[in-house]
Design brief:
The chain has 819 residues and is of the alpha+beta class. Helices cover 44% and strands 16% of the residues. InterPro entries: DALR_anticod-bd (IPR008909), Gly-tRNA-synth_bsu (IPR015944), Gly-tRNA-synth_heterodimer (IPR006194).
Amino acid sequence: MPDLLLELRSEEIPARMQRKAAGDLKKLVTDALVERGLTYEGAREYWTPRRLTLDIRGLNARSADVREEKKGPRTDANEKAIEGFLRGAGLNDISEAQVVSDPKKGDFYIAIINKPGRPAEEIIAEVMPGIIRSFPWPKSMRSGPASMPKGSSYAGIEGKGSESLRWVRPLQSIVCLFGPEHDETQVIPFVIDGIVAGNVTYGHRFHAPGPITVRRFEDYVSSLEKAKVILDAERRKDIILHDAKDLAFANGLELVEDEGLLEEVSGLVEWPQVLMGTFEEDYLQIPAEIIRLTIKTNQKCFVTRSQGAEEGLSNRFILISNIEASDGGKEIIHGNGKVVRARLSDARHFWNRDQGNLPDLETLKDSAAKFGLDLKKPLDQRMAKLDALNVTFHAKLGTQGRRVARIRKLAKALAPVVGADADLVDRAVVLAKADLRTEAVGEFPELQGLMGRKYATLQGENESVAAAIEDHYKPQGPSDRLPADKVAITVALADKLDTLVGFWAIDEKPTGSKDPFALRRAALGVVRILLEKNVRLPLLKAVSHAWVNTFDRFIEIDANYVIWPFQHDSNGILTPVVDPLFNLQPPNKIDETPVVVQPKSVKLDTYQPVTFLYSVQNKGNFGFVESLEISPRGDELTKENSLLNGDANLLSFFHDRLKVYLRDLGARYDLIDAVLTPESDDLLMIARRVEALTAFITGEDGRNLLAGAKRATQLLAAEEKKGTVVADGVSKELLKLDAEKALYAAIKTASADAAKAVAGEDFRSAMQALSTLRAPVDKFFEDVLVNDEDAAIRANRLALLKAIREATGTVADFSKITG
């Protein structure tokens, strides 16, 4: 069967775009061919910095003939309906249609439309121009004579203006060949802005720039390799990696591998040549992370270290050239070395400046007092500067300084829950964002946290504080490590909960695949920390506390405006929120008792605070309420929101992340749903229940009890739906048969034992207690007719089924379990 070879050669394509572009080309071409009736055996895409290539094997020589039946109107339909049918079917006269009889619908017309197949060459030539013109490059440009304004021309090519081809870089040539594996192939001719598809490509820009005539994929690959072009990107990566390792080993070193850099570098060269450069050892005083990023970011080079060393770097680096230099690469090494030294000199300057004093310490005293900072210490100075500059975290959530203040309050509340030292937690929070004002992080944002830890260690901070500064950002993905120290765990939880509650409060939730603030990652991080570090945290309480702290963004720090959350108490009276778990008390900003204003629209429940704004004017030594108003900024938070209400509330968002996490660990979705309720906020207990339920259900007793419990629940639900009377409780006097008496006794014992075990968080014992119901339930359904003719007995037996549902419900909703 014939094969198709397509090459689109251009100026250098950015490395970050190459892999996806090649995949897009494969999908667009194969989808277009299949849509037009051609099938193929296999397809593979390739790419280099200057070309995208597609190899399709076993493509049909022509599309199949197609026979379609188009149903028309009844034979007695009006003339307009018949004319419309003829136009749609492409018939000249109704005599060309066939009449089909249907016993129910009567006689009606059908048109038999035969579409002959088309040669593959014709289809390929038809689809290629459209695919190339509409190619989905993230960024593209117009170039060449065709990009000239309409009406102008050059070298016989007419200008098309805005209608000319847009490509990532100027497109230079197209190869499009089709034919059998062993016979002669033919060029599929089509033209794109004066570029005619042919059978000629070009090799390496410097080593073999001349034309190369190709016939099919095999000689295309071999001809390119002779012309110093390795087509397969994975092979280029393999060559780079192995040659770099060998060169490092030969010099008594080992390569510090970097998959991202390897992917990028393989997209910068067509003929990789591995070389080694050096820099002065004095630069090794700079932290290894800064050296690595400086060399990686600016020169796309790899770093090395001594063989067997886990930390530290050597003063040798690995660079990848695209030229096989006649001098063995000496000039290339020299040039790269000059740039590396210049960049490392800048990095050393950043590193040294970050350890010195800021020039404007007098202006930072207010910020230092606010956060308890010591302006003799460099990192404290940077935190004070961050606050004093009012650096914005988010337009609707205030500055970084206010965010740190919120996290500080929440972390203080979480510290005893986690078991962390409150003073160390407070110090860690205060310094956690300080490195955002360091020059090293300004140059390399990916070092935030890590540099903070280094600077904290240098100024003598407690080891737990320093670790928390780095680790509070973790985990940053499902495979990233978790913070280990309790101080770091506390700060990480506070940071993530503040982020989630804040963005929920301003209605910036993830939608579909869009999650610009990485809220799914933050929620998954909370889930992983709670479960893997065995932290018992009631999320509703924590979210409520973070929600209260969010209002700090809307408090004017003067005597005129104060915001505080209120709730309805048991008597329906609005009272200030006071949370004993987190020691949450109303602020003491005014002396007079505030007058409360009902907000515009807020759903109230046990945990959702309500905000109010009242205005106070100072008169001498006391204050009194002069006017009442709602702040426009306050409205952003007093609108009805879904923090803890509705289908998209924050707790359900945590539940979704928990489900993803547990399913990845192998938990069954139905068992998770059976344990989870909309109010479940102790994620660790949910996970333990799922674990216990899984072990129980996989055993024989569990499977049999599940069948009996589901039968009882389904029968009860059916009777309730019909309106059958169910007794409020089981009456011993109405239990007539031994089987129902035995079941009632077993339920009482099992319910008590299960409830006691659940209260003690011993879920396996709770399951074991319920397993004693297996035999009585089976015997009940064997010997007892639930729908007895006596209404009282029937109601009593239905109450017994209800008791089964309630007993099993202490650990899970068995009706949600499949099987």
